[in-house]
Structures are given as C-alpha cells and as structure tokens.
Amino acid sequence: MGYSPNIKEIKVVSHRRRRRNSAPRSALALSSQLSKVSSDLLIFCVMSGVGENQLISIVPDELKFLFELEKQSYCDLKVANKTEDYVAFKVKTTSPKKYFVRPNTGVIQPWDSCIIRVTLQAQREYPPDMQCKDKFLLQSTIVPPHTDVDDLPQDTFTKDSGKTLTECKLKVSYISPSTTQRSSESGATNGDGNGSETISTIQRLKEERDAAVKQTQQLQHELEMAKRRRNQSNSGLSLKLAALVGLIGLIIGFILKLTLASPT
C-alpha cells in the first residue's frame, strides 16, 4: 500500500508526455502528406493538359460570326507561342465543309504569334434559334528547332506518338445583323456617345468581310486555273505521244513497202 501512490504518479506522468509528443508529430505528418498529394496533383494536371494551355495562348476564346444568308463571314484567331521552343499547331473542326481555315497547320517560332482566319461559307438557311453546335479543336506540340510545316511527320498530332500534346476547345456562336443593328440604335438613342462607334465598327466588319469574300473567290479562281493548266498540259502530252506513235508507224510502213517492192 505504501508504493501505490508512487506507481500511480509515474504512470500518469509518462502517459501525459506521450500524448503531448504524439500530437504534433501526427499533425506534421498529416500536413506533409497533404502537401505531397497537392504537389503530385498539380504535376499531373500540368502533364496531362488539364490545366491552362502552357504552350500557346488563343485570342479570342470563342469564334463569333456575323451570320447572313448567302454571305460569307470570318473570324480571326491570334495564336501566340509562350515558350522558348518551336511549337506546331493544327486546327480541327466538327464541320469541315462549313468552314475554311487558313492556315490550318503551322509552326510558330519562340515568343512569336500568327493569325488564323476562319471563314464561314455562305449558308442557305438559318440555324434553329441561331444556335450553333459546331466546335473547333486546336492542338499544339513542341517540335525540333527550325522545323518547317512541310517537314512535320504524319503522327505529329496523334496522342499515341509519345509527345506532349495540348488541346484547346473553342465554341462557335452566330450573331444576327438585326441584333447588332438594335444594339447600335439603342446606343445612339441613349446618347452615351457609343452609337457612332458601334456603327463604324459594324461597317468596318462588313468591309473586312467583303474583302475576305473577294480574297476567297480569287483563291478559288486561281485554283481552278491551275487545274485547267494541269489538264491542258496532260492533254498536250497525250497528243504529242499519239503524233509520235503515228509518225513511227508511217516510217515502218514506208520501210516495209520499199522492202517488198525491191527485186529479189
């Protein structure tokens, strides 16, 4: 009985020390595990392309077209290289017959940029509720320095090639001329000074659209002329070949005639 108070006191003191020492250790271990998991998650997002596109920047992030029947419209995209490497890009769309993209493939030098013009072909009817479900996909990847567009391998933009391929999706929206006209009229009636600027902006867009239409028509005309020249060259070659064969036949016939007509 005389030793029980000392033994009890020793147990309580050792138990309290263990609890005080174990608590901060568990907290430190938990915080280190959380920091490790967050860093691993960040690295995974960057490597898989889930986060922001680190190779290029695209402005604007949505394609908007002034939609009018039987008229073409276009939208320009500015693609900038944000790295010290050469970056190749490729533009894909869910409706390739409706849009004309130039250039659809290219290589951007380090810290440089380029303009991609997307032209909406003339449409014969309005979409339901002026809603567009078309989408664009812009793929980009790092290529060796001084790489030309014609030197890009066929598997440059395939995900199974082992390269780091980043993708950016762009939505498409249509703007009706009546909407822009109403907005310009409302700005003019409110007297806020923005009505004239809106009207001039619309006029400038129409002029640029007309210029784009003329340029597209000129390119199509040049393409047709090149096809005609190629066909003419092929037809001219076939005519020359036929004339040569006929001449050879005449010479052989003349020689045979002389041979048969000579005395034995």
Automatic annotation (TrEMBL):
<feature type="transmembrane region" description="Helical">
    <location>
        <begin position="237"/>
        <end position="256"/>
    </location>
</feature>
<dbReference type="InterPro" id="IPR008962">
    <property type="entry name" value="PapD-like_sf"/>
</dbReference>
<feature type="region of interest" description="Disordered">
    <location>
        <begin position="176"/>
        <end position="197"/>
    </location>
</feature>
<feature type="coiled-coil region">
    <location>
        <begin position="202"/>
        <end position="229"/>
    </location>
</feature>
<keyword id="KW-0472">Membrane</keyword>
<dbReference type="InterPro" id="IPR016763">
    <property type="entry name" value="VAP"/>
</dbReference>
<protein>
    <recommendedName>
        <fullName>MSP domain-containing protein</fullName>
    </recommendedName>
</protein>
<comment type="similarity">
    <text>Belongs to the VAMP-associated protein (VAP) (TC 9.B.17) family.</text>
</comment>
<keyword id="KW-1133">Transmembrane helix</keyword>
<feature type="domain" description="MSP">
    <location>
        <begin position="55"/>
        <end position="175"/>
    </location>
</feature>
<dbReference type="Pfam" id="PF00635">
    <property type="entry name" value="Motile_Sperm"/>
</dbReference>
<keyword id="KW-0175">Coiled coil</keyword>
<dbReference type="InterPro" id="IPR013783">
    <property type="entry name" value="Ig-like_fold"/>
</dbReference>
<dbReference type="InterPro" id="IPR000535">
    <property type="entry name" value="MSP_dom"/>
</dbReference>
<keyword id="KW-0812">Transmembrane</keyword>
